[in-house]
Specification:
By secondary structure, the chain is an alpha/beta fold. The chain has one domain (2-314): 3-Layer(aba) Sandwich (Arginase, Chain A). It has 11 helices and 9 strands. It has helices at residues 2-6, 52-56, 66-74, 98-114, 129-140, 167-173, 194-203, 210-213, 221-231, 267-279, 300-314, and strands at 8-9, 43-48, 86-92, 118-123, 145-150, 182-187, 206-209, 239-245, 283-289. The chain has a 9-stranded mixed sheet with strand order 1-3-2-4-9-8-5-6-7, with helices on both faces. Strand 8, helix 10 (267-279) and strand 9 (283-289) form a beta-alpha-beta unit. The longest helix is centred in the middle third of the chain and has 17 residues, at 98-114. The chain is globular and about 55 Å long. It starts with a helix and ends with a helix. The relative contact order is 0.16.
C-alpha cells in the first residue's frame, strides 16, 4: 500500500473547501488524503493529469488541468446521502512519456482494486482507459469483466503511437477485454468511421448509439437490459468498468471538453447513467475523462463531473 503512495502525489490541501460552518459541512472537510486512512476507505479518488494522448490524437490540449478543476468543485459539495468512506489518493506521477505514465497508473489502479476498493479515476485524456482496463483484466481475468465506453467516439483507432483514440483497440487486440463484454455507448454515427464501426461489429462488440439510447424513455434502459443479459448465467464476480468521456455530453451542458459537440447526452441523461453504474455492486472503476478547463464556461463541465462523482458515491450499492 505504501508503494502506491510513492507513485502518486497528494492533492493540494487548498482544494479541500470548508465554509467554517458546523451546520453546513462540505466534502472538503470529510474526505481524507492521509495514508493512515487508506485501509478504512471504501472509494478511492485518483487523478491522471496529462493530455499527451489528446495532443497525439490532434485534440485541443488542456485536459491535464482537469483533476484539480473537478476537485475544486467536488469538495464544495455537501455530504448529503454519502455513507461511504472516501480517500483522495491524489495524482499519478507523470513521466516523460505517455507509455511510462500509463505503466505507473496501471500499477496504482491494480493495487487499489486488488485491495477491494472502488475507484473513481479523473483524467486527463481518454487514453487512461487503457491502463484502467488492463488492470481490470490483470486482477479479474479478461473473461470476468465488462467494459463500457460512454463516448461520442469509438476510440478504436489504429495509430503508430497510442493516444486518446486508441485505448479500446489496445485492450481488444491485446486480449485484455473480450469483445462480447465490451459496450460502445452513446456514440454518434457522424463521428464514427465506417471502417472502425465494421471492426467492432465484426468482433461482436455491443453497440448502443446515441439515437438508440434516445429511443427509450430513460437513458439507461437499453444499456441496463443488454448488460443484464451478460449477467444471466454468470456468477456475481462479473465486474464492471465505466468510462465516461465527457465529449459524450452536448456542449451546452459540457462546454469544456477536448472535442465538444452540439449534440450528445443531456446532463440529466449523463447523471442517470452514472447512477446506473453506481447501482451495480461490482462496478470497480468509474472514469471521467476529456474535461478541458481551458474551454469551460463558469466551470460548468467540472461541476457536472463533480455532481456525477457525488451521485456515484451516494448511490453506490
Amino acid at each position: 500500500m505504501s508503494v502506491i503512495f510513492s507513485q502518486t502525489s497528494r492533492p493540494d490541501p487548498g482544494l479541500f473547501f470548508t465554509r467554517n460552518d458546523r451546520n453546513d459541512p462540505r466534502l472538503g472537510q470529510i474526505v481524507s488524503s492521509k495514508e493512515k486512512d487508506y485501509d478504512a476507505a471504501d472509494i478511492i479518488i485518483l487523478g491522471c493529469p496529462q493530455d499527451e494522448g489528446v495532443r497525439r490524437n490532434g485534440g485541443r490540449a488542456g485536459a491535464a488541468a482537469a483533476p484539480n478543476a473537478i476537485r475544486d468543485q467536488f469538495y464544495k459539495l455537501t455530504p448529503f446521502n454519502i455513507k461511504k468512506r472516501l480517500l483522495d489518493l491524489g495524482d499519478v506521477n507523470i513521466s516523460e512519456s505517455l507509455e511510462e505514465t500509463h505503466d505507473t497508473h496501471y500499477d496504482v489502479v491494480k493495487q487499489i482494486i486488488q485491495d477491494g476498493k472502488r475507484l473513481i479515476v479523473l483524467g486527463g485524456g481518454n487514453d487512461v482507459s487503457y491502463p484502467d482496463g488492463r488492470a481490470m483484466s490483470e486482477v479479474f481475468g479478461s473473461e470476468r469483466w465488462i467494459g463500457i465506453n460512454v463516448d461520442s467516439h469509438l476510440d478504436v483507432r489504429i495509430a503508430e503511437k497510442r493516444n486518446s483514440g486508441t485505448p479500446y483497440r489496445q485492450l481488444l487486440e491485446e486480449k485484455h477485454m473480450l469483445p462480447q463484454y465490451f459496450y460502445e455507448v452513446a456514440y454518434q454515427t457522424h463521428f464514427a468511421s465506417p471502417i472502425y464501426y465494421d471492426y467492432i461489429s465484426n468482433l461482436g462488440v455491443n453497440r448502443i448509439s446515441l439515437e438508440l439510447l434516445r429511443s427509450r424513455d430513460e437513458a439507461d434502459i437499453e444499456l441496463r437490459e443488454q448488460i443484464r443479459q451478460r449477467f444471466i448465467g454468470q456468477s456475481a464476480s462479473l465486474n464492471t468498468f465505466f468510462g465516461f468521456d465527457m465529449d459524450a455530453v452536448r456542449s451546452s451542458d459540457a462546454p469544456g471538453t477536448s472535442a465538444p459537440s452540439p449534440l450528445g447526452l443531456r446532463a440529466g441523461e449523463f447523471i442517470t447513467l452514472v447512477k446506473y453504474a453506481a447501482s451495480l455492486a461490482n462496478t470497480k472503476i468509474i472514469e471521467f475523462s476529456e474535461v478541458n478547463p481551458n474551454f469551460d464556461i463558469d466551470n460548468r463541465t467540472a461541476k457536472l463531473v463533480a455532481i456525477g462523482m457525488h451521485r456515484f458515491i451516494s448511490h453506490a450499492a
